[in-house]
Amino acid sequence: AGKIHRFNIEMARTPAEQARGLMFRTEIAPDGGMIFPMDPPRAASFWMKNCPIPQDWFFIRADGSIARLVENTVPYSLEPVGVDEPVAAVLEIAGGRAAELGITAAAKVTWPR
Which of 15, 34, 38, 46 has the fewest CB atoms within 10 Å, i.e. the most exposed one? Predict the structure, then answer.
């Protein structure tokens, strides 16, 4: 609805950074999180192994539109969650923040590439 919200996120660029992600974190700042860029865009699947706190996940297409928004993931779950279509990035933020901020799957996401 024309609102802009800026997050102070970490960028998981390397395979090692992407493999670790937010595992073992006991808190995520209200405006913190992590983005996982995917170049080239591809189908993506994530899980919550070793993640003790819920997260909201945005699977983001190359044009910045959201292919899927998953809210309040289940801590420690080994159930894969993803999309079958190519995405350019996945953004993870603290669980419940999307709802608190009124962010829906209709939002657009931009990030430094």
Answer: 15
